[in-house]
Each structure stands twice: as structure tokens, then as C-alpha cells.
Amino acid sequence: TQLLEQSPQFLSIQEGENLTVYCNSSSVFSSLQWYRQEPGEGPVLLVTVVTGGEVKKLKRLTFQFGDARKDSSLHITAAQPGDTGLYLCSGNQFYFGTGTSLTVIP
Amino acid sequence: GAVVSQHPSWVICKSGTSVKIECRSLDFQATTMFWYRQFPKQSLMLMATSNEGSKATYEQGVEKDKFLINHASLTLSTLTVTSAHPEDSSFYICSASPAPSYNEQFFGPGTRLTVL
User: Fold this and answer.
1) What angle do CA A34, A79, A56 make, to 5 degrees?
2) Mind listing the pLDDT tens digit for each residue in B71-93?
3) How far apart are the CA of A13 and the nearest CA of chain B, in angstroms?
4) Contact between chains at A97 and B41 (C-beta distance less than 8 A)
5) Strand B67-73 and strand B57-58: pairing?
6) How far from chain centre, in Å, is Cα A74?
7) CB atoms within 10 A of CB A59
8) Which residues pair with B80 in a beta bridge?
9) Residues A40, B110: C-beta atoms closer than 8 Å
């Protein structure tokens, strides 16, 4: 099993603040995915990164894949209450990180 | 497109009984389906990989005789939790990978199992 550690595990912030979630591993991945999951639902894919150093933007979300393809970060600018959820990174599709539970307070 | 459904969405059963959960790809053919388990506020743990027409491949620590997986067609996989116990209570999620692509998976909405 390839371990992916996410930090922080829990995060509660005010609307409008910025935040960064980290996903770290000692393993090298050919691809890394970020998902958002709401309670009682399945995860929804946000992005896939495949190239070391790659940066992808999705509206207020910025995803970066580490140069060595062992880690990744998710930065949210001006968080909204609709961003609330469980954020999961996944290496090579099937091995999920420990998760970051984000709550954005209006 | 790429919709995956699960049935039932929630189930409550008595200890010792068996429960079957269905996972269907509604608008594509899925050569491979995956079953995950998720405890409250925790991440997804891959239980097994299911290929159409062949035996499932189980992750280390997952009892294959307890969690029976059948993938009889390109659109349907089933997970049967046999002789369920309270510790089997969890959120079970399936995903499906479109044939012939193995590079993406689409998740079902999950099934909440509660064993009394």
C-alpha cells in the first residue's frame, strides 16, 4: 500500500480566507488526483496531474504536482461555504490520502 | 455521461445476515470496477478490484470469503457482505473504469450499511 499523508486533517476557516492542503508520500506516482467528497456521497474528481512541477487551475483552486511526483498541494483562494467538504488526494487512481475535512464558515 | 449508480443507498440488517450491494455503470461499459470502504471522517480504503468475467483481486487484509464480489457483466458488479457483524458497518463505495481506458474511474454515490 502506498501511503499518502494529507495535512491538515481538519481545517475550519472564515469565508474569504485562503488555504492550502498538502498531500505527501515517499512513493513516486505517475499521476495524482484530487477529489472533493460531500457527506453521504461518492468522491467527485477535481483534477488529475501527471507531470512533475505541473500547475493546474480550476477557478479559485490551484493544484500543484511536486517536481519529484511524490507530493502535491491544493490552494483555495477566497474560500466559499460551498467549498466545504472532504478533500482527498489519490495516487495512481486507487490509493487515497488520509483526507482533509474543510469547513468554511459564512 | 459516465454515471455510476449503487443500490441500495442505505441498508440496515441484523447481525449474521448477508447483504448484497449493486454497482452499475449506466452509460458506459466498465471492464474494471473497484470497491472501497470508508469509515466516518476517514479516507477511502480500496478493498478489491473486480474485472468482468474473472475473480476479484483483494487488497491485503480484506477477507475474500466475507466480502464476495461478482462482476458478471460489463455494467454490473455486486458486493455481498456475508454474515455481517456490527464492525462491518461502514460506507461502501464502488467506482467503474470505462473500457478500454484504465486511466480514470467514476464513483458511485455509496451505500451506507448499518449492522445491528
Assistant:
1) 40
2) 889 899 999 999 999 999 999 99
3) 18
4) no
5) unpaired
6) 5
7) 7
8) B20, B68
9) yes
